[in-house]
């Protein structure tokens, strides 16, 4: 169970909620979560964090200490504080399942409910979704670069705080990692924990060979020895081989070695030669040390014989692109039971919001699992073959296009409502598999790590017209 995150909310959300309670008490609202820019110049983000959003909203409440604290700010009416104390969630959440590749501007999560409640959700929903989606997206890049070799998540010590370490480890698995060194994350999310040893173990003994032998005596079937404390090729690997021979003679199977500094390609090649010559062709070589997808790609291109990767700081902080600026934007307000679409107008088309309650569809070529593009439509629209759509990409050569035949799959599903609770997948490896299936449907060129192709995302003509009308109405008012 997560802590109650009810106060993990920017002050202005409470200020607005208190104000709505006095001015627009019966209004309902629709908010969309989406992002505009993909980290690392990729073409999509892997959605993650939904399980924690659902858990947090289910557990969302204000206890006496929280109400007293808010009262002490001298900003809020007693009526509002009572409303908080008696509060029950009435919001409905529809969302893309975790692991879904999601493109810019697409609502990956939509929240509908009383205006004041939906407003209060903004900060912690964005916090959970932005963080985990960022790390899952980075983990996908890193595991793609590993070309099928297992990647262990090693980042806890470099993560920006305990939650970033633990939720980040969860997101790393969703994005493709095989295991984590973070025991809390492993326990909490039922993940495989994995690890080797640190230089301290080697340094603690009088010499490297003794250190390896002591380890092997305690963990005869888990001897993955760190060979770079003194000198990889003249000391580390020869000592590891000595210990492996003793283990093999006693009927054990040595696991392998880890290299954590120096020129990893050259050291791995030298270590591989020595291990093979000694007959340990199954001993695995693990590489670590500030790895990311660019270094890993370069190492493998150089032919480095690496079997496993341990990746920490660059993954857990998404160091090369550390922000996913997902936003939470008002799309509609109810008046007398009728939804009125709302818009935020901006000088840039990219920053002008898509109004109204919407649905996102992925279109597949008939009879195949090949995704050909996504369409954002108004909720009451039906998609039809031959319909005209408008490209969201302002640089698209053809802004209007007619769709051919397709099969459409709706991407969002209801995951929480006041009446029902749908099951949200919480098994991280099931989410990882789901993600990989969804990725396999996308054109390969959109998945490249460098200069990926643009994937077509369209809005329906009706949505485009609604947006244009609302912009015109605003211009007329100003
Ligand atoms: N053959 C290689 N090709 C490309 N990058 C490499 C290669 N070998 C190592 N690297 C990377 O180069 C960087 C070297 O970092 P750094 O200078 O901190 O390492 P180091 O001095 O060898 O190790 P440490 O400081 O941990 O003892 C790391 O990101 C490492 O993964
Ligand atoms: O480099 P990362 O991808 O974050 O992987 C985790 C790092 O953590 C450990 O290093 P340690 O904290 O002992 O410091 P070091 O960098 O001096 O080896 C380990 O030996 C890796 O180098
Ligand atoms: O188990 C390991 O080898 C490990 C764990 C965390 C960080 N660096 C290495």
From TrEMBL:
GO cellular component: cytosol
Entry-linked SUPFAM superfamilies: Nicotinate/Quinolinate PRTase C-terminal domain-like, Nicotinate/Quinolinate PRTase N-terminal domain-like
Sample GO molecular function, one term: nicotinate phosphoribosyltransferase activity
Domain of life: Bacteria
EC number: 6.3.4.21
NCBIfam families xrefs: NAPRTase_put, PRK09243.1-2, PRK12484.1
Physiological role: Catalyzes the first step in the biosynthesis of NAD from nicotinic acid, the ATP-dependent synthesis of beta-nicotinate D-ribonucleotide from nicotinate and 5-phospho-D-ribose 1-phosphate.
Protein name (Swiss-Prot/TrEMBL): Nicotinate phosphoribosyltransferase
